[in-house]
Amino acid sequence: MKKTIFFLFSICIINSSFGQNDPVIMEVDGDKVTKSEFLQIYLKNNNDPKYDKASIDEYLDLFTKFKLKVAEAEAQGYDTVPRLKKELEGYRKQLALPYLTDSVENKAMVQEAYSRLKKEIRASHILIKVSPNAMPKDTLKAYNRLLELKKRIEDGEDFAVVAKSKNSSQDPSVLQNGGDLGYFTAFQMLYSFEEKAYNTPKGKVSDPFRTKYGFHIMQVTDSRPARGTIRVAHLMVGTPEGTTDAEIATAEKKINEIYEMVLSSDSDEDWENMVKKHSDDPSSSKKGGELPVFGSGSAQRMVPAFEDASFALKEDGEISIPLRTAYGFHIIKRLSWNDVRSFDEMKKELKKKVDKDDRAKKTQDVFVSKLKVKYNFQESEGQYLEWFVENLDSSYYAGKWNADKLITDGTIFSIGEKSYRQTDFAQFLKKAFRGMRRYNFEDIVGKQYKQWVKKSVLAYEEALLPSKYPEYKALVKEYHDGIILYEIMSDKVWNKAVKDTTGLKAFYETQKMKYMWPERLESTVYVCANASISEKVYKLLKKKKNTSDVIIEKINIDTELNLDVKMNKYVPDETDFLEGKSLSEGRNEAFESGGKHYVVMVDEILPVMPKELSEIKGSVISDYQTYLEVSWLQELKNKYPISINYDVLYNLGADD
């Protein structure tokens, strides 16, 4: 929902020239929108912009509603809610990150990422979980524990055995995989983990290293050229968790029978029909079994057995033998394969990934050094820092230290026009006490001072971003408006419609004749493999003692593919295989539709009737939300003045 709001009403105003005159095109509650601003908004949200009156009026209506809602959100103080302010600050930090990195280092990171995408690493790891804010003694305990485990491996014990042993790896998947993570490449692991993987020699065990999850040791077991990306389709007979041995055997028999049918077919249409008829994967069965592209560098990953079987197929259209995974039995068909694209083709995509990745943080030290030169960074001799070394005490480790004894407030450093003083550093120290217990006071002051300088220099540059980069300023405004708009819409419309059960019921009662069931057939449908089987089913239905379970047992004695049974309430005109059929209560003659053969037992013909609220609650809630929004917008139009300069508006596409 948030993404929709941001897309519809994004207001990223690029730094373009629209002539010397920039008249106000509209004003909502005193908030002025100039022609250049509105035009940029209009162009961003219209891939094929039209400047006729109807198109502009349509967009103006949407934009006016947006501005009214934002005006009300601000009037109601949503932009002062601490939770929302914190959320916006988080977004603002993310948006600023690409502007706070060194471009040269960033390019090197992009090149490094591409070189890694051409190589896949297979590694195993052992994890000892440690909180990012853990006490030094707990950190040291985890570190030493991993050193002990590493020694066992280097002394000859199998990595998987050590990983599964008592008091070893705390990765939840270790019992299934022995720590083996399979093959991976750039961007598929945390950057710190990826770094260690690409810099640890094959067969060696790394020293303990830390990620946000805790401490790890890693053994690189193999590497290979990247396999590229592949697009496949599959047909699956599911064996979900809890499937019995007998059911698994039946599923295996079924997949083997289907496989023989696939081998004997000679067209894509046959494959698609078989997938539609037999596959238990609802997300792909209606599109020929096609799955998202996966492979080197893609976000999509499959279980290793499935990936290996897919990449083993060497030609488009080639079919795999049935294989089993934790999800069931599969037949895989290769659709297409692509090698890793060239660097020029991937450069923009990789840059975006690098900017959002931990890689961006690695470039900040270089960037900070350049900012210091640019803004004439000046430091004091150090006498003002000495006071902190002399006045820290053991209360600091518990976060209870304060600088009450500080009687001077000297400038420790300055950058640009801004000075940073002792009181500023005291506030930083008070908040940054965690993880310092292992250090003496001199080391604490030294480490924290470096962090404070880095954060302060970056903050100085960050404060200048809105004036230096109009697109950044506009994006921050976009997120600001989107956050408060989402929140007020939730309160006034979306959540209100869900929580207001009394209002929902009252709304339903006034609208219930809109939600009608047409005539329906409560039926048992027998889907048969061929006409001969449908005739047998029709005859068996003559006797009431032949229930659906009995009939399935009799018909599927040799194969699971002869008969499938479905029970439901069907609307004939909305059901493909029933459309145009004249059916009566009881047993109906067998018929063929869409290549399948059916016998329908109609248990009851249900007349036209209103749908119960419980049956269509989602639709009623949606309609109630629309009603609430329309009513609310009318209130806002009466509350906030709107003025529009139509002469300027209807000449939006004209040159100045």
Could you explain how this protein is built, in words?
This protein is an alpha+beta fold. Among the domains are: 119-225, Chitinase A, domain 3 (Roll); 229-338, Chitinase A, domain 3, CATH 3.10.50; 375-468, no CATH class; 491-511 and 615-639; 516-610, Chitinase A, domain 3, CATH 3.10.50. Helix content is 47%, strand content 18%. Strands 15, 16, 17, 18 and 19 form a five-stranded antiparallel beta sheet that branches. A four-stranded antiparallel beta sheet has the order 4-3-6-5, sandwiched between helices. A four-stranded antiparallel beta sheet has the order 8-7-10-9. Helix 15 crosses helix 18 (441-468) and helix 18 (441-468) crosses helix 19. It starts with a helix and ends in a 7-residue tail after the last helix. 25% of the residues are buried.
Write the layout of secondary structure elements.
Layout: H1 2-8, E1 24-28, E2 31-34, H2 35-44, H3 53-75, H4 82-96, H5 103-117, E3 119-129, H6 136-154, H7 159-164, H8 174-177, E4 180-184, H9 191-199, E5 209-211, E6 214-225, E7 229-238, H10 245-264, H11 268-278, E8 294-295, H12 304-311, E9 323-325, E10 328-338, H13 343-356, H14 359-362, H15 364-374, E11 378-379, H16 383-391, E12 411-415, E13 418-421, H17 422-431, H18 441-468, H19 470-499, H20 501-511, E14 516-517, E15 520-528, H21 531-540, H22 548-555, E16 563-570, E17 586-587, E18 591-593, E19 596-606, E20 609-610, H23 617-639, E21 642-644, H24 646-649
Antiparallel strand pairs: 1-2, 1-21, 3-4, 3-6, 5-6, 7-8, 7-10, 9-10, 11-12, 12-13, 14-20, 15-16, 15-19, 17-19, 18-19
